[in-house]
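job 3f2a | input accepted
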Amino acid sequence: MTATEVSFPKLGIHFNVDSVAFNLFGIDVYWYGVIIALGILLCVTLAMKHCKENRFSTDLVADTILVALPAAIVGARAYYVICEWDSYKDNLKSIFDTRSGGLAVYGGIIAALIAIFVMCKIRKIPFSAILDYGIPYLPLGQAIGRWGNFFNQEAFGTTTTLPWGMTSDKVQAYLRVYCKDLDSTMPVHPTFLYESLVNLALFFILLFVRKKSKHNYEATCVYLVVYGFARFFIEGLRTDSLYIGNTAIRTSQLLSFILMVVGLVYIFYANVKNVERTYIPEKFLVPKEEDNKNKTVKIIKPTGEVEVIKEETKEENTEEPSEKTEPEDEVVHLMGEVAAPEEDEEPSEETKEETEE
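job 3f2a | predicted structure (357 res):
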């Protein structure tokens, strides 16, 4: 039986949560994996959809995902194993047993960044352009993925008297074994929920920053500052933190502080030095629709009369084009005999001499 009753006592909310989504050919498929997969799918879909308006290539998005995703999974596992080495050193096979849990967000991010950096160097693509375009989708994926922790009843905080405090059989069992100084009958902080809400808000903030930013790495550094700040305090509440050796220093809390400082320093530097934003080379870009729109052709007849023909490649437009706004109009001269001057025009001197002769 994998279901457990989850309660929010002060809100009067009680319901059952099952960590297993479904069974496939005798293998349990957990909600944790399903939710992470759905988060990745949504992020990739939005990244593809937003390509056109940002003059970015869908092929480049796909290539980046294919490089970053495997690296992120390996990095997330490696980070956790290194921090919990004492639990794995006597049984190395358990390192590959990811179904038992043990993935760290920061490890996945670091490994993905390294993989993307190598790809950019090989293909000669600006690293900053890839990061600043893709960074909004990272907190969105995190916001969705954190709900996998909810279904597993993990990544929660210390006990609390706040109205939204949560408890369950799994939570109480964990507190009795690993947090004996806490009252296991009390509700705990749903820290996974805190982080999910922060990341969802950060997703929309970064979409705005990406659109308005004029500096390299600015959107990326906004992520480092906001997420680092939030994670620093949320990590301080958690009961399952990874620590540096035998110290009382929480690994993710220290890293969050460092990333926050680095982000702030760089944002200040980029604005003072006016570090201009680098864009993707033309060969990776999708042409703007306007580039092929509203082209006009001017036909100059032998009489000197000008006829303007408007070419519509995308959609019809009956408005008369303005010569001032169409600097790249095509001019066509029609060949033929020049029409005789009109009767009311005075003949030229050469014409008069020929008539007299």
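job 3f2a | Residues 313-318 have pLDDT under 50 and may be disordered.
job 3f2a | closed
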